[in-house]
Design brief:
Blueprint: E1 5-15, E2 28-39, E3 42-48, H1 49-55, H2 58-63, E4 65-76, E5 78-84, H3 98-111, H4 116-132, E6 135-141, H5 146-158, E7 162-166, E8 168-169, H6 182-196, E9 202-208, H7 216-228, E10 233-238, H8 242-251, H9 258-264, E11 272-276, H10 282-291, E12 294-297, H11 299-304, H12 312-317, E13 322-324, H13 336-349, H14 356-370, E14 388-391, H15 397-403, H16 409-419, E15 425-430, E16 433-437
The protein binds guanine and zinc ion.
C-alpha cells in the first residue's frame, strides 16, 4: 500500500527544552516560512520550507497532501495535564472553597456517570471542546464508575487521540453512591487496564481522588497497581487548599506532610502527576524533584476556588516537571490559551513573570514531559506523532487591533495568551489528519 504523506506550510514553532526565565535562544526553533513533512501520521522532517522542499524526494512531494497555512502559526497540539471530563457541566458553579464545592456541586454531578449514556454524551462533548480549543492530549479524571472510563476511552479511541484516564478510587469520606471498596476498585482497575491500557494511543492512569477519600488500604492498592506494570500512570491531587491539608494531617497523623502520605504508599515516581501542589514545603519540593513526580499547575481553578498561588518559577527552579492544566470544572475554561494568561497573572503575584515562550513551552512540550509522554508528542522532532494546531493570531477585533504592524513572534504569543480564545484555533490535526476546523 502507498504511504500517506502530508506537507504542511506555515510559521512553525516548537520547543526543544524549557526556555527557563531567560528565554534561552536554543530552547526552541521557529521558521517564519516553515514546513512539516508527515509520513503515516508521524513527523518525517521539519524546517524552513525551501530547504525542506529541496531535500525531499520529488515523487513523494507530488503524492503528498498539501496544507498551506502560510502566515499562520503551527505548533504541537496542546497538553492539558489535569482535568475532569465529568465536571464539564460543573464549570461556573458558585464556589465557596474546595471542600464545599466538592460536596455541593461536584459529587452530585459525578453520581450521574453510572449511566453509560450520560457518560458517553459527556465524553463526546468534552473531546469536541478540547479539540476546538487545540488540546490534543489530556490527563483526565473519570468518575468512580467503570462505565465512565469505558465511555471516555471509547470516544478517544474512535478519534485516534493520545489520552490518559482512570477510574476514580474513593472508599471513604464521599457520598455512599460514589464510594467503591478496596476489592471493587481492584477488580475494576484490573479489568479496565486489561481493556484499555496501551490500546492504540490510550493509557490507563491509576486515579485515587486524593488522600482524604481513600483509606490507607486503598492507597496501598493504588501503589501496588502502579508497580505492577512499567508504563502505568498515576494522577491525584496534592496540597490545594489549607483546610484540605489540615484534614490530611488529621487522617494520617504519622505522615510528615501531605506528600509523605503518597510516598508512604508507593505513589511517587515517573508517570505520576499531582494537581495543584500549591502549599508545599521545601522538603516536599525536594522529594518531588528527586522522585520525578510531576505537578499540574491549574491557575484558573486556583483563582476560582481561592486556593492560592502556585509558584511556577520556584517549582521549575527545583527541577520539578510541571505541566499546565485547566482543571475543568474547578477551572473556568477549556482553553489552554486562557489558562496560560491566568498562569502569567499568578506568576506576577510572585514577581517572577512567566514569559510567553515559557508559557507556550508549558502548554506543549512541558506538558508532554510532565506526563512522561514526550517520546511520542510535544514537539516536531522526527518520529513524533503529528498532532498539531494552526493558530490565527488575528481571530478577534481586539487581537487584530493589538497586533496591527506588531506581529513579531513574542508579541503574537503573548497577545494570544492574554486576549485569545477558541477563535484563535484555526485547525486541529491528529496524526496529520485535519479533524477540527473553525466554523468561519
Ligand atoms: N480535590 C479532590 N477532588 C477534586 C476535584 O474534583 N477538583 C479539585 N479542584 N480538587 C479536588
Ligand atoms: Zn482535579
Amino acid at each position: 500500500m502507498q504511504q500517506r504523506h502530508q506537507l504542511v506550510r506555515g510559521r512553525v514553532l516548537h520547543f526543544l527544552r524549557d526556555p527557563g526565565e531567560q528565554d534561552a535562544a536554543d530552547s526552541f526553533q521557529y521558521w517564519p516560512d516553515g514546513a512539516l513533512l508527515i509520513s503515516e501520521g508521524r513527523i518525517a522532517d521539519a524546517g524552513p520550507y525551501a530547504e525542506l522542499k529541496a531535500r525531499t524526494n520529488e515523487a513523494l512531494l507530488a503524492g503528498a497532501e498539501i496544507f498551506d497555512y502560510s502566515g499562520k502559526l503551527i505548533l504541537p497540539g496542546m497538553v492539558d495535564t489535569h482535568c475532569h471530563y465529568p465536571q464539564s457541566g460543573v464549570i461556573a458553579s458558585f464556589g465557596r472553597q474546595l471542600l464545599d464545592w466538592l460536596n455541593d456541586y461536584t459529587f452530585p454531578a459525578e453520581a450521574a456517570f453510572r449511566d453509560p449514556e450520560i457518560a458517553s454524551a459527556t465524553a463526546e462533548y468534552f473531546l469536541d471542546r478540547l479539540l476546538a480549543h487545540g488540546t490534543t492530549t489530556a490527563s483526565v479524571f473519570s468518575t468512580v464508575h467503570r462505565e465512565s472510563v469505558d465511555a471516555f476511552m471509547g470516544s478517544a479511541q474512535r478519534r485516534k487521540l493520545r489520552m490518559l484516564t482512570g477510574k476514580v478510587m474513593m472508599d471513604r469520606n464521599a457520598p455512599e453512591n460514589l464510594r467503591d471498596t478496596v476489592a471493587s476498585a481492584e477488580r475494576d482497575c484490573v479489568d479496565l487496564i486489561a481493556r484499555w491500557h496501551g490500546k492504540d494511543r490510550l493509557r490507563y492512569s491509576i486515579t485515587p481522588r486524593f488522600a482524604p477519600t481513600s483509606t490507607a488500604a486503598q492507597l496501598t492498592l493504588a501503589g501496588e497497581l502502579y508497580a505492577s506494570r512499567p508504563d502505568l500512570h498515576v494522577q491525584s491531587h496534592l496540597s490545594e487548599n489549607l483546610d484540605e491539608i489540615a484534614w490530611v494531617k488529621s487522617l494520617f497523623p504519622d505522615c510528615r506532610d501531605y506528600l509523605d502520605v503518597y510516598a508512604h504508599h508507593g505513589l511517587l515516581g515517573p508517570r505520576t502527576i499531582y494537581g495543584h501542589c500549591i502549599h508545599l514545603s521545601q522538603a516536599e519540593l525536594a522529594l518531588m524533584s528527586r522522585s520525578g513526580t510531576a505537578a499540574a499547575f491549574c491557575p484558573s481553578s486556583n483563582l476560582f476556588l481561592g486556593s492560592g498561588f502556585f509558584n511556577h518559577a520556584e517549582a521549575a527552579g527545583s527541577d520539578i516537571r510541571v505541566g499546565l492544566a485547566t482543571d475543568v470544572g474547578g477551572g473556568t475554561s477549556f482553553s489552554m490559551l486562557q489558562t496560560m494568561g491566568e498562569a502569567y497573572k499568578v506568576s506576577q503575584v510572585h514577581q517572577r513573570p512567566l514569559s510567553p515562550l515559557r508559557a507556550w513551552f508549558l502548554a506543549t512540550l512541558g506538558g508532554a514531559q510532565a506526563l512522561y509522554l514526550d517520546e511520542f508528542i510535544g514537539n516536531f522532532l522526527p518520529g513524533k506523532e503529528a498532532d498539531f494546531i494552526v493558530l490565527d493570531a488575528h481571530a478577534s477585533p481586539e487581537l487584530e487591533f493589538r497586533l496591527r504592524n506588531r506581529d513579531n513572534l513574542i508579541e503574537t504569543l503573548f497577545a494570544m495568551m492574554i486576549l485569545g480564545d477558541e477563535r484563535c484555533i484555526h485547525t486541529t490535526h491528529i496524526l496529520g489528519e485535519r479533524i477540527h476546523a473553525r466554523m468561519c
